[in-house]
Amino acid sequence: MISDELTHFNNRGEAHMVDVGGKPHTKRMAIASGKITVNETAYNKILAGDSKKGDVLGIARIAAIQGAKQTSSLIPLCHPIALTKVNVDFSLNNIERSITICVQTENTGQTGVEMEALTAASVGLLTIYDMLKAVDRSMVLSQICLQHKEGGQSGLWQRQS
After folding, report:
1. Which pLDDT does position 17 carry in this prediction?
2. Which CATH number, 3.30.70.640, 3.20.20.140, 2.60.120.10, 3.30.470.10, labels domain 26-158?
3. 76 vs 63, which has greater pLDDT?
4. Burial environment of residue 26 by CB neighbours within 10 A (0 to 12, 13 to 18, 19 or more)
5. pLDDT at residue 16 in the model
């Protein structure tokens, strides 16, 4: 169930952090994804693993995990939460010369983990850009979105194809 109410504003229209103190602790999970399209040189560097800065996808994986953990420091009204799981996968598309990141975040708590998954996907893609910008400044980040979430009051939500 999605409400039409903006929960990050009080009755006077002022921004505030939502009070989740009375909500029950439940298992929550979210999956977010995004894509970066690169030129042939950058794509071949990823495939060969010979970027001057190191293993591009390995470092992007660690950056995505770190991004998930730092979400409340980056997004002003997000609650700091104790993540119980962050999983990061990449898939490569040779035809498009693109890399898709898929991040799953989990916790057991009083608020969801969607923002952590979305932040992780964004940071992972930005890290790929940073590591390959010397050979391709035309890279395009796109399609960053929530794919799935479950748990909490609103229950299950799944992106429709």
Report:
1. 67
2. 3.30.70.640
3. 63
4. middle
5. 67
Count of residues for the chain? 161
Q: Known binder of ligand: residue 25?
A: no
Confidence (pTM):
0.89
Instruction: Name the least confident of 12-26, 27-41, 136-150.
Output: 12-26
Q: Which of 4, 50, 55, 130 is catalytic?
A: 130
* Contact assessment for residue 67 and residue 122, using Cβ atoms and an 8 Å cutoff: yes
Tokens of 152: 């909490």
- The yes-or-no answer on residue 130 being catalytic is yes
Nearest partner of 20 among 49, 28, 65, judged by Cα: 28
Query: Residue 78 annotated as binding?
Result: yes
